[in-house]
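Reading a protein record of the kind used here takes only a little practice. Think of the row as the fold of the chain written in a discrete alphabet. A record is reproduced here so that you can trace the correspondence yourselves:
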Amino acid sequence: MTHQIELRVYYEDTDLAGIVYYANYLKFIERGRTEWVRSLGVDQAALKREEGIVFAVRRVEADYLRPARFDDLLVVKTRLLALGGARIEVEQTVERDGAILFTARVVLVCLSEAGVAARIPAGLRSRLAPLHH
């Protein structure tokens, strides 16, 4: 199952050339992941408070295919690729009118309060498992 959100490109997202500044795509996909997890009924603040865990980006492989510009309406899509003991891998795209502008594979790691890898809690795993084929 692919989750998606829409977002608008604002002037502040663009560079001198009038296109979306490359680092802002990372912000866009972060929003996509946050809303994806929220759509699963997961409260990340509660995970930190009650379970003592957070998720951190370990790796991003990104391809910038076409530029987005001021006022474009974009769609950020997020799809689960892999679910490990302490690791989640997702594929994300940023699209405009069905054309893929940016694509990324993101590896997230579940971390304890001490900053070391920790197993993904059972409750979260049960929400993610049906999405993993």
